[in-house]
Amino acid sequence: MSIDSPIVQDNAKTSIVNRMSMHIDARERSLVVSFSEYVRSCSWAVIGGGFTDIRRVAWFEVHNAELPPEVSPRNYTESRMYASGITDATIMLTSRCVASYADHVVSHGNMQARCLATVGLGNALRAGDPPGVPCRVGTINLLIHIGKALSDEAMLEASSIATEAKVAAIMESKVKSRWSGLTATGTGTDCIVVTCPRTGQREELEPYAGKHTIVGSAVGESVYRSVEKGVKDWLSENRVSNSSSRSHGC
Length: 250
Hints:
By secondary structure, this protein is α+β, with helices and mostly antiparallel strands.
């Protein structure tokens, strides 16, 4: 699934990333994004985290009862990974229905950023809340693919921009932390995956991805719009007002 037109698209199901196609496969209880070639990845995902080269990014939908506190998330994820045959992948877990994913593409000239997001707020928390066992598995998982090759430093900066954009969208929704009752900034198990093309030449890499760059601007807008939609969908489905998150949703 790919198109070449450098046009901003909301909820697009195709990629406009330069020189590379992305294929999205919404399977039963999993969402798999496959790239036409290996990409560079930066994340803290349970499987395939850190800086690595991957071919796929996958979300596994998990029921709350399948992942009680005594079950290792890594062991559970590995068992699902081998059962599904999904390898060369960075893998995230969510209790959110993966078919609910939001998708937003932003283009600046010949540079594009695309964010796919699943948003569940059953485990909504505020940064700085006391630690503890999560009451639910609800989480926010993001994949941001950037159409230019980045340095490792720029990938980290892009992850920071993505975090800021995610927090902005959540705080504007006024969803409350389940622990403190203050405005939430995310959930206890959020994950962000940043990917970009690979290159062997450092002089070809974008060195920065901050707010003053086209990379940072595109990343920020794509993440904000996808998370904003995901939050609105979750609130609507769980029949709560924008001032509360106390529901039985994931």
